[in-house]
Specification:
With about 190 residues, the chain is of the alpha/beta class. It has a single domain, classed as Glycogen Phosphorylase B (Rossmann fold, 3-Layer(aba) Sandwich), CATH 3.40.50.2000. It contains five helices and five strands; from the N terminus they run αβαβαβαββα. It has a three-stranded parallel sheet, with helices on both faces. It has a two-stranded parallel ribbon with strand order 1-2. Helix 4 links the parallel strand 3 and strand 4. Helix 1 packs parallel to helix 5. The longest helix has 14 residues. The two termini are about 35 Å apart. The mean pLDDT is about 90.
């Protein structure tokens, strides 16, 4: 979620309002992203790493919720291993007129902007390229770096001068840091 931040800020620089749909695993990070006006949390079974079966009633409720947003346009940010097409279908059912996403698969009428990127493009650059393909660029003076909204002060038990949190892994190996062993190879 955090690596999508620059792409989301680019959309926010040219949009009146940004509503971000994310799963429960990304909710805390979504709340920290600048440029996001509202967050809708919903687990998507085609993206979640521990998916439940697709529930037609849940999907109908999501379509109703998305229709209530009354968005004119959607930009679907995904990792390289995720398909935007199931969500594009739901967005069409919710009445979204223009949808942009990265897709190697033929999207039929599900996408208005079908963007393609080479394999191996880092996630943050991938998101920025999709935003640009959809017509959104970072605002003047905004650098394509990861940024967060101001975070609350550290709890007293963190002590002085505060704390630093490092999370080198993720649910998807493609987004995790690769270990570097001093000898060049893992210990045996």
């Amino acid at each position: 979620m955090l690596v999508t931040g620059p792409g989301i800020r680019a959309v926010a620089a040219g949009a009146q309002r940004v509503v971000l749909l994310c799963g429960p695993r990304g909710r805390a990070a979504a709340d920290l992203l600048p440029g996001v006006d509202e967050v809708i949390e919903h687990r998507l079974p085609w993206i979640d790493p521990a998916p439940a079966p697709v529930d037609p009633q849940e999907m109908a409720a999501l379509v109703t919720r998305l229709a209530a947003v009354a968005a004119d346009e959607a930009v679907i940010f995904t990792s390289f291993h995720q398909s935007p097409l199931p969500l594009a279908l739901l967005l069409r059912m919710a009445g979204v007129a223009r949808i942009a996403a990265i897709s190697d698969d033929y999207p039929g009428s599900l996408l208005d902007v079908r963007h393609r990127v080479p394999v191996g493009v880092p996630e943050a650059e991938r998101a920025l390229s999709l935003a640009a393909a959809a017509g959104y660029l970072l605002g003047e003076g905004d650098e394509p770096h990861l940024r967060l909204r101001p975070v609350p002060p550290p709890p007293p038990e963190a002590g002085a001068p505060g704390y630093v949190v490092l999370h080198p892994g993720s649910a998807a190996p493609a987004r995790g840091a690769r270990p570097r062993w001093p000898s060049g190879s893992p210990p045996s």
